[in-house]
Amino acid sequence: MSIPSIAIVILNWNGQHYLQQFLPAVVRSNYGNLKVVVADNGSTDDSVAFLQQHFPEVTVIRFEENHGFAKGYNLALEQVTADYYLLLNSDVQVTGHFLDPLVNLLEANPSIAACQPKILSFHHPHYFEYAGAAGGWMDHFGYPFAKGRVFDFSETDEGQYDDAALVFWASGAALFIRSKVFHEVGGFDPYFFAHQEEIDLCWRIQLAGHQISSCPQSVVYHVGGGTLPKGNSLKTYLNFRNNHIMLFKNLYGWRKYYVMVVRALLDAISAFKSLLAGDSGYFVAVASAHLSFIKWILKDQRKSVFPNPYSHRDKKRRPEGLLKKNIAWLHFVKGKKKFSEIVDKEVKISR
């Protein structure tokens, strides 16, 4: 009996040092039907030469320019055939047999289209890592958070989120997904370039009738911030712009406009608060993001990937991992730091 095929696909941009450090463990992954692909996004360092010399068994897809995370992966995956894709950041340390729990979860649950391992911090291994932790959620107004990480607060991993459960989104740092579903829903939105594209993808996957899950039996360690470090103005701009585009695309009816208006007000409060605190860069990034969102509405919507227009017909279907509250209020005003203090009920997966 053959086992499902997996393609681990790493999108690289000037990351030779990460490839040198973390790729050996990826290549040694203990799975019987595996290929490893590195898609190089127009690197100007020696990444490609390094791969050709030291990892001839790795398939290299080379682009002449940096297409960003979203379009780069879309272009690469058009050239990769496998039952499952694992989209893996170049700065992730994998562990032995980490693929088996991911495959077993999806093979046993046909309704689940994508999942993620438990992601811990490479530099602080007992803490959850910012980019996804143990699975992503989203609040009523589009603010993403995760099991083990709420805004900038990361919890210590004490096994508190070791049950597989349905989530809203799986982290793009280590996204395990059925290849068929990835292509059926149109892949990542290339307009996003980078940041929040995996949340948008997972939302469209749920609207298409599938589910997203965590898989904490699989564990990886993520460095994080390798391309755009935390606090970077471009990162702030992309996060705010893409979040608004995502809300506009995937919400429907009166709720869309209610949420968009409230979010604009909340963003304005956050931007002016930062300006008064002397952080003009954050203020400019948020303001620019809102202007770009307006430009997208007026001119660039055709460049994005939308959910199927029939997705909203079943209005009883509500995405899992969606909090009907304002996470900012609960965290900053009510003082709730941990995911377990904010979410009291999850849909767990029986194994």
From TrEMBL:
Signal peptide: none annotated. SUPFAM superfamilies: Nucleotide-diphospho-sugar transferases (SSF53448). GO terms for molecular function: glycosyltransferase activity. CDD domains: GT_2_like_c (cd04186). Keywords: Glycosyltransferase, Transferase. InterPro entries: Glyco_trans_2-like, Nucleotide-diphossugar_trans. Residues 8-117 form the Glycosyltransferase 2-like domain. Pfam families: Glycos_transf_2 (PF00535). It comes from the Bacteria. Belongs to the glycosyltransferase 2 family. This is Glycosyl transferase family 2. It comes from Niabella soli DSM 19437. The lineage of its organism: Bacteria, Pseudomonadati, Bacteroidota, Chitinophagia, Chitinophagales.
